[in-house]
Structures are given as structure tokens and as C-alpha cells.
Specification:
Elements: H1 9-18, H2 22-72, H3 78-81, E1 94-95, E2 101-113, H4 121-131, H5 137-144, E3 151-157, H6 159-168, E4 173-182, H7 190-193, E5 195-201, E6 206-212, H8 213-217, H9 219-223, E7 232-233, H10 238-254, E8 259-266, E9 272-278, H11 317-326, E10 335-337, E11 343-344, E12 347-348, E13 359-361, H12 362-368, H13 371-381, H14 383-392, H15 419-426, H16 435-446, H17 471-487, E14 501-510, E15 516-529, E16 536-543, E17 547-549, E18 552-554, H18 561-572
Parallel strand pairs: 1-7
Antiparallel strand pairs: 1-2, 2-3, 2-4, 5-6, 8-9, 8-16, 10-13, 11-12, 14-15, 15-16, 17-18
Organism: Phaeobacter piscinae
Domain Penicillin-binding protein transpeptidase: 262-548
Subcellular location: Membrane
Length: 595
């Protein structure tokens, strides 16, 4: 910028020559300079005002757009609108081994209220209580007339309930889409499926998460979109499961039992075809866990098949006999003196009803269920070898079946495993396991001596594990179990055409705080069928059974659990595709002679 001098010399000399005042020139130039400076300042101020105006215009435009969006959208809870908390709605189905639906998704609606938009809060509250009797009128009125702007009323409602609420006509009562878990078969396989609930929730969506059973165990798989909606296929057979539940429920009522459980397992694949725990529940309306009491088995949520850890009594005797045969100590015909007295330290070892069987073969020890007989076999086996054998059967760890609650069913073993424990454990006392452990142990005998892990997942073929006993020991053990049914304590378990083999077990029931009840027992029957070529193992356990038979009160497994198991085998064997067969017999000894 070039400044003009205030008193230019040429103009000053000319002015003086003309007799004019040169100061007028200076004043004129100064005025022009001030005018130019004022114009420049005004231009800068106008530019700044323009920039500031554009900024405020953009800000008000953004705020107005956000307010318009909020005004035209439904309210959302803060937890659901937080950054990075998108709600995954879809969840894969669960099906049985034949593809039949066990759990699926169902589209429904939630109900919420915006009190500032309500026309008649008190009238709407009264109508809602008529539709939903579990709601409290006073609390609804208080919420609707208070300062709250958003209130959940029902997280899921039926189409009929939605229509009834819609008929109220209050603009402050609004609906949101909701996906819920549906179990179309009701309580069938309830303890296996477990149930689902809501995780993160919003008005327009809700996250469905597993809370128990396989729903919880496979929650990540069921929620993973990468699986393309492929269903989770279980080993259960829906038809067999329903039949087993029906038979077991009838047996539990007939035998006046407090609870019951049954497990049907494939002895080669480890697939659990059916598992029942009673009392049960409807996973569509899953009850709340108990908040008081010392006995968890009183809750219908308690899964007796995997969480129920009991002393299973004489069902363990076959393990002792099979191990003794496997070690070459005895065979099924070896004679053992079972007569008394027998003492371990200061503790006497007696028989049921103080019987004295005298000398018995190993097979008859199992048939008669002799405590002294199996105890003397166990002493020959020794504590260490007994522990190794039971450990190989998985009796010291929680069962590996894929049900979330199974991890809590850890067996209880003695702290000090001496001679007394060796003897008592040989006939099923002193070591507490779940019925699922027992099923896996009997499956090893049934399949020829190899461990097979119980699984709730569909398998493509045999899943035999490490060897526990020789095939010959397993064969002799199966023959002993068959004899128990044909001429022993499990005669009520015989099913014509299916050749059942098994062992009964009656154990005193432990108290929740220690000790045992005097007149309460756990009655168990562990069976396999067909005995000559076993395909399946069935374990039935009744909690506190009691039945009057022949004028006497009976609690033992032979009178309670065995008839129920026999009825169940007769019902489910045809459903499993097993045809009745004539039991094969041994070849007769024939001597050829000449005429």
C-alpha cells in the first residue's frame, strides 16, 4: 500500500505561489486517509460477522435436525443406545437328532409407556390391570402420573394382549418389536435345553441369551451370525424323550417318590438319547432360582441327572466284580466265602436284613447283592488299583456332557482312602457320583470294556475311548447282570424280547447338612439291553420312593426303580428301532456216537 504524503511539496509550492493556505491541503489529505482506513475496518468487520453468522447457521441447522429426528423416533433406553452396543437379534434353532424343533425364535412385541403423551393415565392403568392381572394398579398410577418419561410395562406380550392394549386407544401406550425364545414342546427336555432370557434390551430389539442348559453352554454358537443360521443338532430323540418323561412321571407318582431321573445312552457313541429329571418346568416360563433352603433338589430347576451327586449303592458292585475278573483274581464261577463276621477295624460289614449267604460264586455275589462278597473282592484288588479303575471310568471328575449344570456335579470321594473306604466303595457307599457317571460306567461294560464319554451332541459314529477292562471281563460282567434280572433282585425289569441285564442299588439318602436319613433312600436300577449285544444303557433313579406291596412298605430298588425301568424299556425299545428277539442260548454239549 502506497501512502500519499499529507503535505506534498509540489502542491504546497503551487499553493503558496497562488497565495493559498498550504494547511488546507494537509487537512484534505488527512480526511481522505481516515476515510480509507474506516472503509477498510468496516470491510473486515463485515467479513467477520459473515463468518460468525455462517457458523451459527450451521450449528442451529444441526441441532434442529437432531431435534426433528428425536421427535419422530421412538424413545430408546440409554444402555441400548450407547456406542458399540448393537443388539444381535437372531438366534439359531435347536433340533433333535431327526431335525425336529426343540427351540426356535418367535416374533412378538414389548409394551412400554410414555406418560407425557398419555391422555388418561388412571383409566389406562385400570384397563392394563384387567389385561395383565399381575400388575399393581397403585404402582401404575404412580408411575403414569409422576415425572418419569419412559416406563417398561411388559417385556413380551402375546398377539391377543397386544390387541387388547391397542383397543385402550391411549397414545402414550406404545409397542416395540421383540424376538423371544420359544420352546414348542413345553416342558419336554426342559433340563437339557435350560432356557433363555434377555440381555441388552432396547425398544426396537432385545438380545436373547442362554441362561441354563445347552442354551447357555452353546450360547456363542447360537448367537454367531457366521454359522448362517444352521441349527444346533442334539443327540436327543424327541419321541423317545416324551415317552420316557411320561413313564417316569407315572412311576414317580406310583412309587410316591419325591423326584426321579432317567438316562438312556448309546453304549458305542455316548449319545444321550433321553435324559429326564423330575420335577421339571416349562422353559417358556422359567421359574426363579430358590433364594433360601439348604436342599437344592427341592427346586424344579435342579437337574438330578448331572447335578444330583448320590451314593448309588449296589449298582457299583459290578465294577468290583469286573475289575477282579480283569485282573485275573477270579472268574464268574470262583467261590467266595461271604459268611460273617467281617470287620474292618472297629466297623462291621453286614448284609441286607442281616442275611448270611455263606459260600457264593462271584456271579451269585452280584445276583444276591452280597456286601461281604464284593468287600472281600475289593480287599484282593487293593485301594490303589481300585482308585485307578474308577478314575479311568471318569468317576472322580464332573461328567463331560455338554450341559452347563454338569460342571457342578463333581463326585465326592473320601479324603483318606483306606481299607474301610475300599470295602464300602466296592458296594456303592463312600463315593458319591451322578447318575450320568453311572451310565458311562455301565456303557463301558456294555460295549466291551472301553470308556465312552456321554454327550448331548449328535455323533457320526462310535466314539470309543481308552480301554478300561478286557473284552472277556466285560462279557462275564454282562452275563452276571443278565442273571440279576432272570433270577435276582431285578426280576421285575424283564421285558420279553429285549433281554434286559442290570443291577439294583438302594442307598440311604444323605441329609443336606451331613448324616443320613433313617427311612429315606435313593433307589437306582442301571440296565443294558439287549443283554447279549447291548445297544443302550438305561439308568433310573427314584428319590425317596415308598410303595406298599404284599402288605409291607417297600423302598428298595427291586420294588421301585426296577418296575419303572422295565416299563420304560418296553415303551422306548420299539421307538429305537429294536425288534423283539429270542435270546440266543449256548450250544448244547453233544457227543457223536456210532450206531
Amino acid at each position: 500500500m502506497i501512502r500519499t504524503p499529507l503535505r506534498p511539496l509540489a502542491r504546497v509550492l503551487t499553493a503558496r505561489a497562488r497565495g493559498e493556505n498550504p494547511d488546507a491541503i494537509e487537512r484534505e489529505n488527512l480526511r481522505q486517509r481516515h476515510a480509507e482506513m474506516q472503509a477498510q475496518s468496516r470491510q473486515r468487520a463485515e467479513g467477520r460477522l459473515l463468518v460468525l453468522g455462517m457458523f451459527f447457521l450451521c450449528a442451529f441447522t444441526a441441532i434442529g435436525a437432531r431435534m426433528a429426528t428425536l421427535a419422530t423416533s421412538e424413545p430408546v433406553e440409554p444402555v441400548a443406545s450407547a456406542p458399540g452396543s448393537a443388539i444381535a437379534m437372531q438366534r439359531a434353532d435347536i433340533v433333535d437328532r431327526k431335525g425336529r424343533i426343540l427351540a426356535t425364535n418367535f416374533e412378538t412385541h414389548s409394551l412400554y409407556a410414555q406418560p407425557p403423551q398419555m391422555v388418561d393415565p388412571e383409566g389406562a392403568a385400570r384397563r392394563l390391570v384387567e389385561i395383565f392381572p399381575d400388575l399393581e394398579l397403585e404402582r401404575l398410577v404412580s408411575d403414569f402420573t409422576g415425572k418419569r418419561k419412559f416406563i417398561w410395562i411388559k417385556k413380551k406380550i402375546s398377539p391377543e394382549q397386544k390387541q387388547a392394549v391397542h383397543d385402550i386407544g391411549d397414545p402414550g401406550l406404545l409397542f416395540g418389536p421383540r424376538e423371544m425364545r420359544l420352546y414348542p414342546n413345553g416342558s419336554v427336555a426342559a433340563h437339557v435345553l435350560g432356557g433363555a432370557g434377555f440381555g441388552k434390551e432396547g425398544v426396537s430389539a432385545a438380545e436373547v441369551i442362554g441362561v441354563a442348559g445347552v442354551e447357555k453352554q452353546f450360547d456363542d454358537y447360537l448367537r454367531d451370525p457366521a454359522n448362517g443360521g444352521r441349527p444346533l443338532k442334539l443327540s436327543l430323540d424327541l419321541t423317545v424323550q416324551a415317552a420316557a418323561e411320561q413313564v417316569l412321571y407315572g412311576g414317580m407318582k406310583l412309587m410316591n417318590a419325591k423326584g426321579a431321573t432317567s438316562i438312556l445312552m448309546d453304549v458305542h457313541t455316548g449319545e444321550v438319547i433321553s435324559v429326564v429329571s423330575l420335577p421339571d418346568f416349562d422353559p417358556n416360563d422359567r421359574p426363579r432360582p430358590p433364594t433360601s433352603g439348604f436342599d437344592p433338589s427341592t427346586s424344579p430347576l435342579f437337574n438330578r441327572a448331572v447335578q444330583g451327586v448320590y451314593e448309588l449303592g449296589s449298582t457299583f458292585k459290578i465294577f468290583t466284580a469286573a475289575q477282579a475278573v480283569d485282573l485275573g483274581i477270579v472268574n464268574s464261577e470262583t467261590i467266595i466265602d461271604t459268611s460273617g463276621p467281617m470287620r474292618i477295624g472297629r466297623f462291621p460289614i453286614g448284609e441286607f436284613h442281616n442275611k448270611n449267604y455263606g459260600k457264593l460264586s462271584v456271579a451269585d455275589i452280584i445276583v444276591k447283592s452280597s456286601n461281604r462278597g464284593t468287600g472281600r473282592l475289593a480287599l484282593q484288588i487293593g485301594a490303589q488299583r481300585q482308585q485307578d479303575f474308577l478314575r479311568a471310568m471318569g468317576m472322580f471328575d464332573p461328567t463331560p456332557i455338554e450341559i452347563a449344570e454338569a460342571a457342578g456335579g463333581k463326585p465326592l470321594k473320601p479324603r483318606k482312602w483306606g481299607e474301610l473306604s475300599t470295602v464300602t466303595i466296592s458296594y456303592g457307599h463312600g463315593l458319591s457320583t451322578s447318575p450320568m457317571h453311572l451310565a458311562a460306567g455301565y456303557a463301558a461294560i456294555a460295549n466291551g470294556g472301553q470308556y465312552v464319554a456321554p454327550t448331548i451332541m449328535r455323533q457320526k459314529g462310535p466314539q470309543l475311548g481308552h480301554r478300561i477292562m478286557s473284552p472277556e471281563a466285560a462279557r462275564q460282567a454282562r452275563a452276571m447282570l443278565r442273571k440279576v434280572v432272570t433270577s435276582g433282585t431285578a426280576s421285575f425289569g424283564e421285558v420279553p424280547g429285549y433281554q434286559v441285564g442290570g443291577k439294583t442299588g438302594t442307598a440311604d439318602k444323605p441329609k443336606p447338612r451331613g448324616g443320613y436319613y433313617e427311612s429315606k433312600v435313593i433307589a437306582t436300577f442301571a440296565a443294558m439291553f439287549p443283554a447279549h449285544d447291548p445297544k443302550y444303557v438305561l439308568v433310573v433313579t427314584l428319590d425317596e420312593p415308598s410303595v406298599i406291596a404284599h402288605g409291607e412298605e417297600r423302598r428298595t430298588a427291586g420294588w421301585t426303580a426296577v418296575p419303572v425301568a422295565g416299563e420304560m424299556i418296553g415303551r422306548v425299545a420299539p421307538l429305537l428301532g429294536l425288534r423283539p428277539q429270542v435270546e440266543p442260548d449256548g450250544l448244547a454239549a453233544i457227543t457223536l456216537t456210532s450206531n
